[in-house]
Design a protein that fits this description.
The complex is a heterodimer of chains A (109) and B (119). Chain A is built from no helices and 9 strands. Chain A is mainly β and 109 residues long. Chain B is mainly β and 119 residues long. The chains are: A mainly beta (109), B mainly beta (119).
Chain lengths: 109, 119
């Protein structure tokens, strides 16, 4: 089955840039979606199809995807960005399935 | 606006069947979209369980396929999850969510409901 690997944690100072990676075999050939999850809350979609933002998501959130790594970038990080972030892809193999990444805890220092 | 609300027992005994329902408001299930279930064990990551289209077409996580049934009731504008032969490993927050199609992102989520498997 397809595996997505994320760093367990990323720490960033307010105003700086956080980059969260999502590694997978030839992930660049897939569409990657990113979710933000704050404690006790349901996940919220922040980036879809590699780099598109849903309505209401700040431009500070951006995404890219190439080769074996997809990246979610949060610019000008704010305290409210502290959360867990998950990447997701659709593995269209013989038995198609959604796969989520292992998740990354973003801590704002 | 579109809202999803999960409901069902918060406690299920081992070996029994977990049953949850997701009520959809603000949108008719018959109009389109896929409707899915995702779960999250305490302190762990997200796991997709499966999804259904209003026509009844389903996709299931291969690792859970033998125990999962997802159905839709368009007359009640809701869809349901049944997970059989549960164990403590099935203890999790269960979310329902909407997506445009296979491979598309989950754009709207329910608040989630905690289900504990214990005797």
């Amino acid at each position: 089955s397809y595996v997505l690997t994320q760093p367990p944690s990323v720490s960033v100072a307010p105003g700086q840039t956080a980059r969260i990676t999502c590694g997978g075999n030839n992930i660049g050939s897939k569409s990657v979606h990113w979710y933000q999850q704050k404690p006790g809350q349901a996940p919220v979609l922040v980036v879809y199809d590699d780099s598109d933002r849903p309505s209401g998501i700040p431009e500070r959130f951006s995404g890219s995807n190439s080769g074996n790594t997809a990246t979610l970038t949060i610019s000008r990080v704010e305290a409210g960005d502290e959360a867990d972030y998950y990447c997701q892809v659709w593995d269209s193999s013989s038995d198609p399935s959604y796969v989520f990444g292992t998740g990354t805890k973003v801590t704002v220092l | 606006q579109v809202q999803l609300q999960e409901s069902g027992p918060g406690l299920v005994k081992p070996s029994e069947t977990l049953s949850l329902t997701c009520a959809v408001s603000g949108y008719s299930i018959s109009s389109g979209y896929y409707w899915g279930w995702i779960r999250q064990p305490p302190g762990k990551g997200l796991e997709w369980i499966g999804s259904i289209y209003h026509s009844g077409s389903t996709y299931y996580n291969p690792s859970l396929k033998s125990r999962v049934t997802i159905s839709v009731d368009t007359s009640k504008n809701q869809f349901s999850l049944k997970l059989s032969s549960v164990t403590a490993a099935d203890t999790a927050v269960y979310y329902c969510a909407r997506h445009l199609g296979p491979g598309e992102a989950f754009d709207i989520w329910g608040q989630g409901t905690m289900v504990t498997v214990s005797s």
